[in-house]
Amino acid sequence: MDDRQFRNAMGKFATGVNVITTEFNGDVHGMTANAFMSVSLDPKLVVISIGENASMLEKIRKSKKYAVNILSNNQKDLSMIFAGQIKEERHVDFEWLADLPVIKGASTQISCEVVNEHVEGDHTLFIGKVVDLKLQECSDPLLFYKGQYSSLEKTSNLVM
Hints:
The protein is of the alpha+beta class. The protein has four helices and twelve strands; from the N terminus they run αβββββαβαββββββα. A hairpin with a 2-residue loop joins strand 11 and strand 12.
């Protein structure tokens, strides 16, 4: 199978959209990601996956902490900013949770300390111990499906 075929197959798995943030040397850094999942309830652990060419990789390695910001369907522009799809400078509002920058208004904010790191293929998996989280009542989640942003309304109209 070729790379495109594999990417197309993986794109058929609908995921939420997250912005991973950290603070390093007094600067806030972030990137859009959908490779995130819970790992354990006791202890509370989550994992993120960062590509070997992402500038965020070394920032998380050095800071030893990260936050996961789960976006709602009205935050597509934030996803596009942190994915580099919007090039012009835009102001982003941050709050702080357990000494980590988090996106104001994200449906869920999860602050983590890195407890383990695994290099697998061309990505690094960071296992994070959840030190704090904040949930907000907001709209439906922002989804990514078949290489495009989507929403629950769009996916609920699919014929099974």
